[in-house]
Amino acid sequence: MRHQINERHAAHEHHLTVARTARFYTIGELGTGVHDVWLACHGYGQLAGEFVERLGAAGGPSRLIVAPEGLSRFYLEHARGGSHATSPVGASWMTREDRSAEIADQVAYLDAIVDALKARTSDALRLTALGFSQGVATICRWLTHTRTRAERLVCWGGLVPDDVLTGDIRMFRGTHICLVAGTRDEFATPERVTDAASAMRRLGLNVSQLGFEGGHRLDDATLMRLANASAEREQAGSGVRGTGAEAPEKVESRK
Fold first, then answer.
1. Residue 209 lies in a domain
2. What are 202-243's pLDDT values in tens digits?
3. Would residue 252 count as lying in a domain?
4. Model-level pTM?
5. pLDDT, mean over the chain
6. Residue 246 located in a structural domain
7. What count of other Cβ atoms lies within 10 Å of the Cβ of residue 142?
8. CA–CA dist 174, 79 (Å, integer)
């Protein structure tokens, strides 16, 4: 027998926008001679400080790497002896719960970081948007909702989510999309990456693939290849201010 709920006691969903403190880490300083900015979103269960250190191989005097941290932190292990005092902590970008609000918060968060960077310099900045694992979905959804244009989108260990590819993809026109995965990645397998690249090319997107020997992780040598490609574009003089500009050059999810 179904439980009869009195209308006066039914639950009603509400939403309230609140200000909160977000954390992000950087490698490099925004100043004279820095034109290349990487906005990098970590994977599920990672923290931005540890993640950005793993991106260190891509650092350089003309590059600023920015790693925002997901707004939802949690303990990665069950309490030990009834306490979480020594449990490791990770962060997540979102779950399926209250999905639209979560995405809106992510977009506002990443927009605020980019706006803060642009306010500190009058120089033209070239933006590489990089996502690892769950961060791939986050960075892709941000690009579909923001006015900021990325010269390059790097999807590492994750695939562009279906809701992005079946939606408005105009923001990806003029952006080079590079799919990166290890040969033993259990989430972004070589077969899935190849199929995804073919599907995106059929949509008219500029896509390439980059692989390395390994699993679901970052790789120093591959990061250096991506960084070197950025340096080559800098020498060629192709700058992007961040809103509306398109990049003419072609350079080689977990949720």
1. yes
2. 999 999 999 999 999 999 999 999 999 876 766 665 444 343
3. no
4. 0.86
5. 87
6. no
7. 24
8. 48
